[in-house]
């Protein structure tokens, strides 16, 4: 599927969208469709997409030959299972926490969520967000009332298996999470398999003094092509805690665009990216400080081997009224082969004068002295390399406060190390 045919196919699907939507949805879809038709798919001429070539990824399909890896298990969680982009309600436990399938919301002409979907930290010119808005048909809505704490995480499991996952027009899902004042919840996303092309948009609105812990684990196949976004607005004294773990894919990109809108709002984003073979893994994060005394912290670690390509774009924006901002960003990457690449672009845009902002990035190799130390004690070289990589990643996993969630992420890292141990070659 060439870039032109991919765009034509998507526009055809939008033009023949089936049943007439309810008025609010029809207006939302039409605005998104018009904007997308004008802009088309993003290209590398767009600065935000300079390092990620979606058109090329869509033009060349590949077959995944790697073994199918089962999604991680999270005992006790409230499960929402999506099979090839479609919610399987029979296997899900949504009613226990009041979550509602998106299809039900999209068919309701008077839904109270009409002024929420597509209106959280809006990005009117974002091509893939408009694509998702124009074609979204499944997903989930969760509204947590004031001062309520969910008793267990909401676990969104996305499984992409078989030929159905390779539809040319792709699958497009939308998740909406609303926390009222003082509410607390944990959201876990697990992605596995090979979506032919998918977009997933998660919208998050946190009212005053609420708190959301959000863990994303991507274990996609090597043929997968997926672009995901997390859009968030964080109000007074509320807190968003995110941890993103990604193994890349044929094309994998996750954007987190968060706005700290009111006084004392906080965001902490940590994560890791692990990629080998010829996988592509893009993390793009933009945090906007719009209220006074807001704080954000980003810390990511990457491990790239084979001919994998990693991208980390992190931007901190401080608005004029955001005096007292405290924002920090640090990205560290290990390159395990001469063919692996990392493109990092930390940015600061500061329009206030009473702020503390810092950013940094490092790129290096395995410590040869540490490797020699381990080998001198009888540890085989491959095992010694894996131990050093595990130790490098172990520090960032400590950022996850929940023991159960930290164990889940650690198990994913261990699984990756077992599968790719032979590819962790040391750079001499």
Describe what this molecule looks like in 3D.
The structure is a single chain. This protein is of the alpha/beta class and 428 residues long. The protein has helices spanning 3-15, 23-39, 54-59, 102-106, 127-135, 368-376, 381-397, 403-420; strands at 78-83, 86-88, 100-101, 138-144, 154-160, 171-179, 184-193, 198-206, 211-220, 225-234, 239-246, 251-260, 266-275, 280-289, 295-304, 309-318, 326-335, 341-350, 356-364. A hairpin with a 2-residue loop joins strand 1 (78-83) and strand 2 (86-88). Helix 2 (23-39) packs antiparallel against helix 5 and helix 6 (368-376) crosses helix 7. The longest helix has 18 residues, at 403-420. The chain is globular. The mean pLDDT is 91.
* Overall SS class: alpha/beta
User: What does the largest sheet look like?
Assistant: 10 strands, mixed
Residue fraction in strands: 35-45%
* Average pLDDT taken over every residue: 91
Outline the low-pLDDT stretches. Answer: none
Give the count of helical stretches.
Answer: 8
Strand order of the largest sheet: 2-1-5-7-9-11-13-15-17-19
DSSP summary, beta strand count: 19
**Rounded radius of gyration (Å):** 21 Å
* Envelope shape: globular
